[in-house]
Structure formats: C-alpha cells, structure tokens
Amino acid sequence: xxxxxxxxxxxxxxxxxxxxxxxxxxxxxxxxxxxxxxxxxxxxxxxxxxxxxxxxxxxxxxxxxxxxxxxxxxxxxxxxxxxxxxxxxxxxxxxxxxxxxxxxxxxxxxxxxxxxxxxxxxxxxxxxxxxxxxxxxxxxxxxxxxxxxxxxxxxxxxxxxxxxxxxxxxxxxxxxxxxxxxxxxxxxxxxxxxxxxxxxxxxxxxxxxxxxxxxxxxxxxxxxxxxxxxxxxxxxxxxxxxxxxxxxxxxxxxxxxxxxxxxxxxxxxxxxxxxxxxxxxxxxxxxxxxxxxxxxxxxxxxxxxxxxxxxxxxxxxxxxxxxxxxxxxxxxxxxxxxxxxxxxxxxxxxxxxxxxxxxxxxxxxxxxxxxxxxxxxxxxxxxxxxxxxxxxxxxxxxxxxxxxxxxxxxxxxxxxxxxxxxxxxxxxxxxxxxxxxxxxxxxxxxxxxxxxxxxxxxxxxxxxxxxxxxxxxxxxxxxxxxxxxxxxxxxxxxxxxxxxxxxxxxxxxxxxxxxxxxxxxxxxxxxxxxxxxxxxxxxxxxxxxxxxxxxxxxxxxxxxxxxxxxxxxxxxxxxxxxxxxxxxxxxxx
Amino acid sequence: xxxxxxxxxxxxxxxxxxxxxxxxxxxxxxxxxxxxxxxxxxxxxxxxxxxxxxxxxxxxxxxxxxxxxxxxxxxxxxxxxxxxxxxxxxxxxxxxxxxxxxxxxxxxxxxxxxxxxxxxxxxxxxxxxxxxxxxxxxxxxxxxxxxxxxxxxxxxxxxxxxxxxxxxxxxxxxxxxxxxxxxxxxxxxxxxxxxxxxxxxxxxxx
Lengths: 589, 206
Description:
The structure holds two protein chains of two kinds.
Chain A: E1 3-7, H1 8-18, E2 23-26, H2 34-39, E3 46-49, H3 53-65, E4 70-75, H4 76-81, H5 83-92, E5 98-104, H6 118-124, E6 128-130, H7 134-150, E7 155-160, H8 161-164, E8 166-171, H9 188-191, H10 195-216, E9 223-225, E10 228-235, H11 237-246, E11 250-254, E12 257-259, H12 263-271, E13 275-278, H13 285-292, H14 313-319, H15 348-357, E14 360-362, H16 387-397, H17 400-404, E15 408-413, H18 414-430, E16 435-441, H19 460-464, H20 480-487, E17 491-496, H21 500-512, E18 517-523, E19 538-539, E20 556-558, E21 564-566, H22 576-580, E22 586-587
Parallel strand pairs in A: 2-3, 2-4, 4-5, 5-7, 6-7, 10-11, 10-13, 14-15, 15-16, 16-18, 17-18
Antiparallel strand pairs in A: 1-8, 6-12, 9-11, 19-22, 20-21
Chain B: E1 15-22, H1 27-40, E2 44-49, E3 59-67, E4 80-85, H2 88-93, E5 98-107, H3 114-117, H4 127-133, E6 137-139, H5 141-147, H6 154-163, H7 170-180, H8 186-205
Parallel strand pairs in B: 1-4, 4-5, 5-6
Antiparallel strand pairs in B: 1-3, 2-3
C-alpha cells in the first residue's frame, strides 16, 4: 500500500470520502479550513460553506437525519457558535453518520482563546476521537461514521493545530465505501425536542453513555504501549508524539477515544507502573477526569507541566528533570515581526482615519483585527464573530461618546457580517440605536485563505474550480446596501476603501450624525485576490515628515537621512502613500 | 546499518530541519520539496507548518523531521540539525533552535519589519558577523534567483543549498522539484536548485 504525505486535514477529508460521506459543510476557521477544501475536490460528495458554524451543524444534522453521512467542520470557537444545535443533536441522535470536526488551537496561533473542545463532547455526552497524526486522522474519521451510526449519536473528531497542519505519511485504501443513503422515516418522539420528548431522550442518552463506556474498554484506538515499568504516561493527540520524543522509555496509554474514558483499562495501566502521569496541553481535561475515576496520578518530579500554551518535548523534559540539548540563548535585540496589513490592503486607510478620529473602535474577527496593533492602535475590542456591532450599541447605551468625546465605531468584515453581524445590527436598528457601523467588504474571507462567502457569492465548489471572487460566482451574492435599507437603515453609503478623501469624509459625516445609525460599506478587493499591480510611485523633495510612514505599509521605510523610501520588492503601486503625503511629494508622474 | 530501500538514504537517527522566514517567502514549498525527497527515500517524515494570521508578513517557520520513525513534529531549542533562513533577521530569531553541531544556511537579505519602518524598533547590529560567528553559511539566494531571471525561486535556491547538508542524491531532489512546482516553472526552478547547490558547495570548499 502506497503512503502519501497528507496534512491532518487532508487525511480527514480522505477518510470521510472513503467512508462514503455525502455532504461536507462548515465555516472556514484556522486550523480546520483545508478539510472541506480537500473534500470538495473529490468525486460524488457535495460540500458548501455555511454563513456560520451553527448553520453548518444544522445543515449537517438535517442531512444525517435524512440519511446521508455528513461531515461538519469548524475551529474550536466555532463549536461555541454551534453549541445550541450540538447539544440538542446529542439528544436526538442522527440516523446516518454525523461527524463534527473540532479543530483546537493551543497557544492561539490564529485564535482568540485556546479552549479545549473535548469538554463539549463530555458535556453533550457524545464520543470524542482524538487524533495524533495523519494516519489517525484517516482511520479514525472512517471509524467515526461507523460509531455515529452504531450508537446513533454525533461523533466529535478532535484535532489540534499541530495535527491539522502537519504532513505525515498515510497509507490509504483509496477506495470509497459504497454507502447507500439510509431511509428517512418520520420519528417525532426522536426528532422533535419539545419537553415531553426531550425528557425521554435524556434517558436514551443515559443508556447510550453506559454502552459507550463499555465500548471504550475495548476501543481499538486506545493503545497501551508497554516499555518501562517505572513510568507510565496517559496522553493523546500531538502530546503523545511529544511524550515519545521526551520520554522514549516510558510506557504510554494513548487515548484515541477522549470521551468516554476507559475506566478499567486506565486503572489497570496505572497499577502496572510505579508512577502514572497525565501529560496534556493547555487543559486539565484528562487529569481531572482520570483523577475522578479514583486513579492516583503522580506529579512530574522536577517541575509542574505548564497549564497553558502548546506543549513541546522540551517542556516535558523540563518537568521530568531531563537535560536539554546545548543551544544559544535567544537573541534579545530583534525587532518584532508580527503580521501586518499587506501592501495595498484595503483595510489600511480605514484604520488610519479611525486613528485620526480618535474613535473608540469595537472590532471583530479577521485580518482587520490588525487595526489594533502599531502603527494604528485603532481597534479597542475584539471578542468574537459579530461582537463589533452589538458592542458598539452597548457602548452607546453606556454613554461612551458623551463621556469621552470620542465617537464609537463598530468595524466588521464582510464574511464576519454574514456570520453573525446581521443579527447584531438588527438589535441596534430594532431598538433605535444610533452610531456608526463600518462593513469592510474586501470581497473575500481573507484571513483563512480567501474563501468564498455569502457576500461575494463564491461557493466552495467555485473555489475548487479556481473561480476568483471577482469573476462570475455561481452562488447568490448578498447586496449589503439593499439589506441594510431593508433592515431599516436610512443612512447607508458605499465608499471606495482605497480613496483616502472618500474614506475620511464618509467617516466624518457618519460620526457627526449623532441622531441616527449610519452604515458605511467600505468596498475594495483584498490584495490576495486582486493581484494587479500599479506603477511604483517616486518620491521627490521628501520633507521627512513621516506622514506616509504612519500608514504602516510594509513597503515604506526611511532612508538613513530620514526621508521616505519605497522597497521596490514589496511595493505594488497601490497609491495609498501617494494619497497620504501632505506635500504631494510622492507621485506616479 | 545498510539501507535496502530503492532510493534509500542512511540517516543516523532523526534529523530536524527548520525553515524560517517571513510570510510569503515560500517556506511551505521548500518544506514540501524536502518532505517529498525524504518520503521517496523511504524515510518516515513529518512537516509542520504555521498557517493563518502569521502569514500576513509575520515570522513563519516550517519544521521537517525525518528518520526511521519520527515522533514529535516540533523543533525544540538546540535540536535543529539544519536551519535554513530565508531572511537574515529571522536567522537570528531562530539561533536558539540550532543544534551544537548543526548547520545554518542564510539568504543574506534583510526585510525591514513594519515595527522598524515606523520607528518603534531598530534593526539589529552586526547581523552578518553574528551569523558567521555561529558558523552560518550566508548565500545571496535572492541575487542568484534574480540573476536567473526568476526572483520567485529564491526559496528553491535555498533548497539547493540545503540539499548539500543531507544524504540524498541530487537527482532525487530534482525529481521532487519536477513533481512539486507548476509545469511552466520546472526549468527555472531546476536552474535555481542547481545554482543554490553549487553556491553551497563552493562555500563549503572555501
């Protein structure tokens, strides 16, 4: 059997496809995004992006109840959005297999927190499979559909960023299982969660838990590897790989099934070693549960394991008092290189003007979160998808503008607006709120890799055929202006986000009008989808005032004499610096 | 221990290769090339990438680990057998990962981060000297790529340099280039690979 290098996400797509999955649905979110992008390229499976994770889960549940095996994908914080249908589906069960991929991000490489999604599986009492490499991803995804149908429950497939985005060798069969759709039959007591039915389904979940606990004891994905009798380590996922590196002689209990836990097998393992440890990252998910089973766990001899952040072998070695390899100290005099708005980014001028206005900006999730960092400092809250618009209303209710003299402006991207911003804005409109809301419509879901969304109308199928958002999407594109008007916004304008004067006057007009809600749609394509380049400007008679530098373009720096200088390898000729020079020294003539 | 695999390479224990650079420099393709070579040589291999927010011009890294059986996919301090830096400041940022007997290849170019452009931070002093003191091999990979008329193949020039530090046949690398890059750019990338390999070999002979 040939082995291929696959990321965890690609292997999940392969496993799902081989398991006969018929529907794949999700919302883009690092580190889960590539799963559906890989699945949509395969034959005989339909995939789509949903506006948000709640919708995605409901679409997947509907498909499963109607008899089609379904895969629903999201990042960990997306599970929060999907939690409502998730908890109900844990009661109803599924009919055909329903697998939820929850992709966690320890150390928050691209996230607002590092929550552990497995707590949701335990909360809903649904099986949770925990993957440790791409081979696991492939095999356990296939098994997840069988488990889902055998126990009539959604199954959570839990991965972390290191699994999702690490390519490892995978042996696959390459053959798709012929899975006929299951029959759909009406079953009101099972699928209508009104009180009388819900109380009875609760008892079904209790029975299912007992069956799952029995299954856990023999689940083939829980693997005991006996080495030293002195040290035994209970672990899962990427941490299993780190434990093998740091403690190669330790016996391991690799939990492939993270819920429910195999109580007897774990107790036997703990009894078979002198000292039994749980090693896990950014969570006490396993240690709290293993202790609750009455199993005594030892503390690492040298130091406690970190409670937060991604684990690495060196952190395990430190906890167990093992010497680290010699190495240089980290350099301490280096300039930080955080992510930044790309050259020509359509968000840049908006944040420059929000900075000039000294606005209190409630921001949102996307590339434009970078409006919070230097040189802008013009984004003051980022909480979750959609929070910008509702929090701006809350700030208004608190009298923020009256007390600070600063306008409050909510700023949200196009995909995020479709995800959760529409209902946020509706709350403000309904209750007669005022203030200024900005929708940054860069024509794509940029942060996760330029996916389509309901605003640009590009479907997941389109992107698998390399149709760009500015071409001819097959989906229905949302008309933001018409939507705002239909919702009751009278003051709504569309503004070219690349036109500095237009951005400035629109923001000034909107923030001056304190008696009504103003919505500005700042529209211009993301430079990751519009790769066109203009002529590089030239700088003449620069007065070294630094105004152009303050726009924070990666292509603009200072020469030794303090005058502005353009880096020709980074400049795309976008005109933002031309417009920002107060003396007209930067021109394209 | 003899290796009987067809394209087999004898690797003593697990090797860790760390690629560092700035988002958009092509570290991901470079990692793919190395992983393809290692897999073709019959080795176990893991490639760990960072996606998402850092790709917007931030510091990025790819870890490739290869050997008979690879466990962790991350690189600890002092564990990188080879560091390939696509930018010189990022090479310094990665210096603590370098193993005591490790090798480092650096594209001798500096990209000024926004934090320096706006005057909040300065570029570090004596970059080249510091890199040479730690035994790094500095290459003008960008200059070489531009000289070949394909500035976007700087990453493959660096892969050519990396190839001299690993026990795989050059033809295996060239085959990986052919299979991993778009058909229209195969010749340019093969030229970039050979030029990078030559530059590293010349440097080693000096």
